Write the structure tokens for this entry.
Amino acid sequence: MKLFLFLSFSALMLLESFGNSQETDQQALLQFKSEVSEEKKIVLSSWNNSSPPCKWTGVTCGRKHKRVTGLDLGGFQLRGVISPFIGNLSFLISLNFSDNSFGGTIPQELGNLFRLQYLDMSFNFLGGGIPASLVNCSKLSYLVLFSNHLGQDLPPELGSLSKLDTLVLSRNNLKGKLPVSLGNLTALRGLYFGENKLEGEIPDAIARLTQIEDLVFHMNHFSGVFPPAIYDLSSLTLLNMYVNGFSGSLRPDFGKLLPNLQIFTIGSNFLTGAIPSTLANISNLQLLDMEVNSLTGGVPPSFAKIRYLQTLNLNLNSLGSFSAGDLEFLVALTNCTQLQSLDVSFNRLGGDLPAYIANLSINLNQLFLQ
Ligand SMILES: *[C@@H]1O[C@H](CO)[C@@H](O)[C@H](O)[C@H]1NC(C)=O
Ligand SMILES: *[C@@H]1O[C@H](CO)[C@@H](O)[C@H](O)[C@H]1NC(C)=O
Ligand SMILES: *[C@@H]1O[C@H](CO)[C@@H](O)[C@H](O)[C@H]1NC(C)=O
Ligand SMILES: *[C@@H]1O[C@H](CO)[C@@H](O)[C@H](O)[C@H]1NC(C)=O
Ligand SMILES: *[C@@H]1O[C@H](CO)[C@@H](O)[C@H](O)[C@H]1NC(C)=O
Ligand SMILES: *[C@@H]1O[C@H](CO)[C@@H](O)[C@H](O)[C@H]1NC(C)=O
Ligand SMILES: *[C@@H]1O[C@H](CO)[C@@H](O)[C@H](O)[C@H]1NC(C)=O
Ligand SMILES: *[C@@H]1O[C@H](CO)[C@@H](O)[C@H](O)[C@H]1NC(C)=O
């Protein structure tokens, strides 16, 4: 009897020392379900006591320990709030709530999930801020919160998530400046801040993100001269900066410093100066959008070398000098055989329309010269 008591006591101690157990997982999931309403009632019907959680729809468990390692409820049409009990799924590696209708806030208890690597909550109605507690999910490599109602400033703590590969915060209501600590996310390959209310200058510290391929700032209130730090990011393939308050000119050697760009958009800003002729050194450039700025000079003849150029938007600038010869760049563009859309409307281009305009790309389906 004494021995039995002692053994059960030890077992309890053991359980306690491990903190949570399979029962904790089950309890957490049922608690989560209780705060969720399903538009199609059937989707979580397997979440009941007749079978263990590892058999439930959307739940993945570890093979040996039978603890919940994955929760994939993407596109399940769930409503309601996300229960803080989710923070008790201590073996969770991957959490996907994308494409549901969750409201409320992201529970700060998520910070307890120290094994978490993938977190996708895109396409919901989550408000509040990004919880600083996420800094404790130190293995996080994929953090995607695209299209929610997240507000407030970015927590500087984000800069400690040193394993982050992809950070997508686009289409929210985030405010304030970018924290300098972002420069510590040196493993990042994609950083997406588009369509928020972020402001101020892009910190010089981003020059340290040397692995980065996609950098997305469009439709915010960023300001200052074209960020010099960007010239250090030679791996960039996508650079979206349209609709912001960036000013100054592009460096003449722009194209030599960012030779891997495929898409560069900086329309609707306050750029001045000339279009750098070295853009022609970017051999894979497909989309170049510099519309609605105050650019002067002409389209460099070197553009004949941009073999894969598909879209060129230079409308609403101050290009040309209302004189014959302004349209000579069209000769160069006849070499861009992939060109589909060319917009040079609302500039200062003069002269007669040259006959060789007929030799522009056979793929051209939009030409704006008004
Ligand atoms: C409980 O889940 C099982 C599948 O595991 C399902 O067949 C059964 O209909 C569910 N029970 C209820 C009451 O939804
Ligand atoms: C999450 O689920 C959606 C489907 O709704 C899918 O498109 C997306 O790739 C998933 N995310 C992850 C990280 O697996
Ligand atoms: C799980 O999480 C909830 C809320 O965060 C908490 O109240 C509860 O005590 C936790 N522990 C267990 C074992 O369920
Ligand atoms: C991270 O975890 C530690 C230890 O549990 C805790 O003291 C700290 O407050 C947590 N950080 C945040 C930002 O929640
Ligand atoms: C960046 O990381 C270093 C060490 O890894 C740390 O000393 C520094 O405080 C961090 N900087 C920011 C701005 O978080
Ligand atoms: C850039 O292009 C110019 C001509 O337009 C060429 O002379 C130069 O070699 C190119 N540089 C690189 C690094 O490709
Ligand atoms: C256009 O390409 C041809 C060869 O494909 C080349 O000979 C010619 O110099 C190019 N034109 C310009 C303006 O660079
Ligand atoms: C158009 O191209 C053809 C073949 O490359 C050339 O013979 C012709 O002269 C060009 N037309 C104009 C108007 O430049």
